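Re: [help] complex structure
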Amino acid sequence: MSIDTAPTASATALDATSGTATRRDILHRLLMTLGPILIALIIAGCILLAVGVDPLAYYGFVLEKGLFSPLGIQQTLTRMAPLLFLAAGLIVAFRAGMWNLGGDGQFLLGAVTAAASAPVLVQIMPSWLALTFSFLIAMAVAMIWSLIPALLRAYQGVNEIITTLMMTFLGTSLANVLVKLMFRDPSTTVPQTRTLPVEDRLPRLFETTITSGLLLGLAAIIIVHLVMTRTAFGLKLRIVGANPRAAVHAGLGVSGLTVTVFAISAGLAGLAGAVDIIGVQGNVRADWNPAYGLAVIPAVFLARMNGFAAIGFVFLLSVLSIGGESAARRLGVPNHFTLVLVSIVLIVLALAEYVDHRYNQSRKA
Amino acid sequence: MTGLFSEVFLSALLFGAVTAAIPLLLAGLGEQMSEKAGVLNIGIEGMMLAGAYLGFVGAFYSGSLWLGFLTGAAGGVAVAMIMALLCVRIGLNQIVIGIALTLGLEGLTALLHHFQFSRSYPRLPAADATIIPLLSDIPVIGPAFFKHHLIVYLAVALVFGMGYLYRRTQLGLNLQAAGDKPAALDVAGIDVIRTRTIAVLTTGALAGLGGAYLANVGAGLFIPFITNGAGFLGIVLAMLARGRPVWVLFGALLFGVCLSLTTAMQVAGINIPTDVIQMLPFLAVMIMLVLFGRRASLPAALGIPYERGAR
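Output below.
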């Protein structure tokens, strides 16, 4: 597997296949990733010191709960499943030069449709078939939801940042309305959907609590990566992303490709919602919005839209969020600190990439 | 008339609409300036939160709302300085840094609030209104529009100030050029980086002020994540307004009415989930986009960092 080693800081869409990965390149990238993370941890540690928390104890706890304890690592890997689907969807869109910032709305609608359909379907058909149908329905709903921004962008040239942001606000509210009015479980007082029985959810891997959704997520992101880098279809999308006008002159049906990209991207976000519900949560509570999408966007950027690098960043994100949640319960540091930490990591990584790029340039000159 | 459409209810509804609209207006005006200058400022949500928290802390400990507004604006500027340094001067990706700043400030303000106030949510006394004579005596409209805190009138005046700035001044033209054709501005001997930095810092000040208003006047207290997407709404307003400050005002009022309607419905005990009403402004805007979308236009160099001699 080739790892993207092109030294350009600007994420051009076409550099994915360039370069054969030598061991030194990989080492360099690893260093350029771990170094900034260490710096970010130190900066965030200063904030912890300022509010009177021992940073070493905190980080130790986060690492232990998110990475080194058997239960923690299982939770971390489980958390990765929806994030991987989201990242896969974003890779398709971003490589094609389309800013699908509506991931959270698509995610929630996928989650709600899966939560509404799965408990009903499992009663009338075998479990595996029911779950497959739920996945497909969730994907279809998210795809339809993305149709308005897609058509507006494809045929009217309306900026998709604004439309997808609007649709994500709409989608979040609509998901709540659906939970409260249409799919509400009549047997509980709290507004939530019917709960999918644990035995009907996605099977867990071996003897662990890790959801098999993880494998689906890994498959999704690797397939997306290969399609984008190794197929004619992927090349077409990257041309549209690199230069839409050139793509028109090259005879590509840009409008059609635009709608396709939105459909794939939103469909994967819908699957992310479904995998979180069918694999982990079992139901959707009213006002549930984990807002995974917003955190995954910068991670995908930092991975330079490379699927394998994105897996690494998603893993990091999961460790931090699972470890942070445990620390919130045990050390009294609110979970919000995770947001600060993630933010600092992202900024320092972006800066490091810039410095590295500058260094390479000056060495070449 | 009685019930829902009584005079008192209507003027309270409109009063609430103005109160809800002001933060959106300030954020929208700020974002508009950034976008004009070619910087897509997604960190504005974070700037508003910084403004809301520091504005609240300032007002809470000094007892002066005006000092609160000042610290709020300063908070917004502080975040904007990071954005200007990373995205304008160094030229890092604006979307990555913008989202990172928003996430970071969401976390940081919630964290600081936790350690400062623990689980208590102290309230500020209600802001005293500046009552405009004569106009405030008009039924319904008077109490709704002319009994607000002084800063509300200043914010509305700013709309026209901005209009003047963009149409009649050198700086206004420079801002426009920085977004449409930065290379031309550079050739004309004007520093693109500085022009864009001015725009981003102004955005920070306005967003911070908007956040401070939201916390100090709108809510009277700070709660984590208080802005709840107001910054993103500001981005939407700025993009819809196509460079015209007046349209930001209209848009902000439209959203304000819908937000106010949400509260009013709850008070009136009408049994519709608030989510349905919250969808209204977005639905309205989406319909507008479907109908008039073709005419929406954005600066040519929006989101592209400027590097001298890059092409």
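The radius of gyration of chain B is 20 Å.
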